[in-house]
User: Fold this.
Amino acid sequence: MTFTGWVVGGIASIAIEKYLLQTLSPGLLQQQPSWDRWVKSISSVVFAMIFAADQAIVLRRYLSAWWLWILATSVGWLVANNVSTAWIEYISSIANSLNKTLSFEDVIFFGGLSTISYVLSGIWLGFLQWLVLRRKTAGAWWWNFLPSFSYLCISLFVWLLSFLQDLIPEVSRAQILYLSGQALTAIILGVIPAIGFCRLKIYSRRITARQ
Assistant:
């Protein structure tokens, strides 16, 4: 369901963004650049809601207040995304302010900082989801860091995927790498939390049995 939410949410958000941008006149967008940001924000909200709702379809069997999961996941995803984007842009601006061609060591350094910012931003998503899960589970404190672990795995797999780019025909390389990266992201975001949910369910059953 997470994979489905990622795909459907992505298609819906892109379609809405294109529709809104085509509806607004180019002159208005040039005069009011904030409209472009608003359009992107609306598309991001649509994606987050669909992404969270697909997960809630399964989790409503275990969480009576399943709408809280939709709210927590949507807000957490948006906050994590905005925080990581802000930090990555800030790190990029520092690199550009050096006014020099970056050495290999510089690229590794600034790239590493950007990756760390992306990984740590997952704590926002984990924390808000934990606020919902702690009401129905026992020992769920580690869930705060589970999305960050998912983000770390995504970064590692996408990095490994980049080593295969020379094996892909140049004509379709960009598209194949993009789709492969999106597929890997969706799978990891589904598999790792699913394992986490299973662990929570088993642990909570053991606690209940002891009591």
Notes: Residues 1-209 form one domain. The two ends are 33 Å apart (CA to CA). DSSP finds eight helices and no strands in the chain. The chain has one domain: 1-209.
